[in-house]
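Input.
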Amino acid sequence: MAKNIEPKLRKIGDYLKLEDETFFMIPEYQRAYSWNIDQCDKLWQDIVDYVESERKDGHFFGTIIINCQDHDTILGLIDGQQRTTTFLLLLKALLININDAIAKTSRDDESESLCRGLKERRRKIMGILYKAETEDISDKPDREADRRICKSSFILKNSSINERYKTELQTILQAFDYEEAENNVEKIARKKNDNKYTNFFRNFKYFYNNMADTHNLSASQLNSISKAILESCEVIEIKSWQVEQAITMFNSLNSDGLPLYDSDIISAKLYAAAEGMKQGNEFKELWEELLKLIEELKEKGVTDLDAILMQKMYYVRAVMKETLTNKGSVTVTVPGLRRYFIDINKDLINHPIELCKDMINLAKIWRRVSEYPVCQILFKFNENAKLFLASYFGRFKEEDISEDKTETIFESILRLFTVMELVDTGYSSKNFKTFLFKEEVKLVDQTVSEQEIKEDFDNHIRDMWDRESIKNEILDYDKNSLVYLNEYLFAKEKGRKFIFIDKPDIEHIMPSSGKNNQEIRKDAGINSLEEFKGIVNKIGNKILLEERINRALGNEWFRTKVSTSLKEKTGYIDSVYPIACELVSIYGNESKAYWKKEDIRKATEEAGDRIVRFIFGD
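Output.
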């Protein structure tokens, strides 16, 4: 007889603590581990904010759906593999840093209680990761004994056919320290710097570095964070004994049954306040206008109602200087949206008409500026940029804003987020989040000029990063955000107007695939497949191209793409994007135009120089 579904609210430390013969299993049909630094950064910041808030209630991290098999010893992760894997990496990074902290605090007689706490955390984490018995774990780290424990058991088996690095998590967990993990993990061919590592190790490294001495995390803070993760972070674990039932629950929980958004709660409070002031009808009309604007902005991928409320909260906190301590230092801890409006700053709720009008103005500004090319480029980077742009918008009424007035601030923020795209540091780093929180106080202050703010960004970027390192990162870059930026900067360089049109695609000038690929590589002077893979995704081989043109061209030869006589086809000559137009002007009249590896390297070098000049405010 099938067992009933079992939902339980569980502490992370209890959820991950398995019996000897039990392990988590990622089923064959699951996707690969895909969490990256951004998601780990958010997870880490959520935990740090929770610890700093000194709340006594638990901190919830969602629902985990498990399909139980083989007498409940195999726990198939139907929903929760990304979070479970990430928490295991986080615990391993914690363990290594706790071992280091124990070695330091044990020499300090005044830290006896702290050292005792760290030893307790060490035992709990080793009990989770390696199912080790308490009596088998020494008080202090012991390289040989710990190494035996690290290799004695496993907690998660990855059976996904989509995962290329099935043993990577186990390799990290089995390492005694960070150096051993780094030496033993996979290194991806043709990649440099941190790009050569898998998501598993990059995320592990991110957590490890966030706890290391370089981030000034004290042993006491490490102990508090460890305790919070193990004893206060919570998930709802739902166990099912029928895989079809488990998958049905997963689909249901992710499509229906969504919890109330913060905006639902806040809007109800606003309406109640308006009714109490006999302004209910006026509020309803304004709220309806706001929702229509929001729907339009959501369709364009610009913002939504919760985001607008968050932006308003950021603006008010900056105006009130709530992000600065009494001593003038910056605090980046952000209260929950609902808590801020309903508990911390009730005055906002008590002025529903004024608040609604302010949000309508902000939504109208977003509708206008979202058409600006520089804004559209910025949207290709990190979403957090919108929080600080919105604070700056508080200076304007919708009818007063323009491209000329805003370009300096847009580009300043874009430069900083371009750096973040290139360096392997998350948004929560002091070089990004702390700096932006401090600068936000100036962004909302109309007495502070845009030029002064630009100079702050100039000085910060020049003080924190050097040109050569940034240039090297650009030369090694193989993603897409910088392709948009490069087009924008090229247009400015040539004095051309830059506009987004017809859903731009990322076009590989030398095709990355296709039936003529081998011959095209030969024309380009590329001798091997490995050399081709190392060059085809460089920024110098990528441009923007209208979707209709890109689809029509397919994987044609370069001479076909730039030709002025394509008969029934379209080509670069019909594009409005600046680099495509430039290629036509240079190569269009050649009878046999070739795009060679030297052209890609030259274009990549030029793009690198162009973007570096922009980043450093030259």
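The chain has a mean pLDDT of 89.
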